[in-house]
Amino acid sequence: MDFRNKRVLVMGLGLLRGGASAAKWVVNHGARVTVTDLKPRRELQRSLKSLGEARRKIKFVFGRHRVSDFRNNEIIVVNPAVPRETLYLKIAKKAGAQLENEASIFFRFCRNPMVGVTGTRGKTTTANWIYHFLKKKYSHAALTGNSSDNPMLAALDKLDSKSPVVVELSSWHLELLPQSGKSPHVAVITNLYPDHLNRYPSMKSYASAKANIFLNQSKNDFLLLNKDNSWTKFFRGFKPKGKIVYFPVSLGLNLEKFKRAYGLHNFYNLNVAILVARHFGITLQEIKKAIKNLPQIRFRQEIILKRKNLEIINDTTATTPEATIAALGRFRNTGELFLITGGTDKKLGFTEWARTVKKCVKPGNLFLLNGSATKKMVLALKKAGYFRKIKPYIFENLSVLIKAVKVNLKPKTYNLSTTILFSPGATSFEKFKNEFDRGERFNRLVKLHF
């Protein structure tokens, strides 16, 4: 595939560098580029600045999309946040345009052995821990994907063509991955739970997008599946060509202490990360040593404050009920537990979430940030018989909520081991730009009030 002198439209500059990196990459590879984004220019200043000198070679359309741009460009590079059913993409396809995204372009041009990681929960942690282990042997190993830290097309031209590269892939990335004709040498699906049902018409549709990670594998490739997840049977139904390896498995390491400290979900993440590391020749002795300094992943059950009897946890990337259930499983036995939760609905259910909250959190220790999902949470909790003696604490503003939590930390509470867990269980778009913006604000408020 050659981008030289091709008319390329980048649909969605975005806020998290992925769109900007894609625009910069196609410019640097000789394309004639237009960028279109529904947001106004003033909201995209950071992304525009990150374009550097490439910005001078790009035409911009802000605050709208023009039908003519989708009819007249040969290649449309789609930001992952753009729904695939949008009318503009239908217009582009009818006009004969080729649809790509950063993942499909990355896979077309990457020559390194690739480890692809996807799943509903744990993919960021798993990808980071695989990378952590690989660095013990491969000094030029790389980590890229579903993160603003090192977007795929910012990383691509820096790769050495031989060291392993770990790629975190969302379902949105995977929608167009078959366009590349490639799959990762090692594909990991951590698990599958209900998510993004505001974008996908069914769980099968969501799972099918995830399955794209292995559709172009060969018999020399590997697919790692969670043997305890109910959707593994669905993935087997595609008759993958790669060798299927199930996890968790016995690895010759005693991980019971780790499981108790970090939770069952992180045990699964670690188990599959070790499997991948072993495949690439990392010894058990090297792995055992590396486990002692596993990186803390930002905004994933991240301890942001630790004092004598108080811990505050930022788990803002918990955007599903199952993610908060996992966090409660980890921190439920840490003493007095306060939960801050709530947000925007993705057409998910909260029945099991409500049962878990009832078991783990006293009604007076639950603080809800209002939103469309929060209303469903309250209804599920009422059905579970949770609010019998008090009314739910619901707040419109995160700052006011944090102050209220501090007021409820009575002097006697400070004599106990106390954990404040910020695990929204929902997305963030009614009050924040995204979950990372939400996490940053939470950190600033904790610093201010604690």
Considering the chains and any ligands shown, give keywords for the structure:
single chain; about 450 residues; alpha/beta; Rossmann fold; UDP-N-acetylmuramoyl-L-alanine:D-glutamate ligase; Protein-Tyrosine Phosphatase, Chain A; 3 domains; 6-stranded parallel β-sheet; 18 helices; about 35% helix; globular; cytoplasm; ATP binding; nucleotide-binding; ligase
Question: Care to describe what's here?
Answer:
This protein is an alpha/beta fold and 450 residues long. Helices cover 36% and strands 17% of the residues. It is built from 18 helices and 17 strands. It has a six-stranded parallel beta sheet, with helices on one face. Helix 6 runs parallel beside helix 12 and helix 17 packs across helix 18.
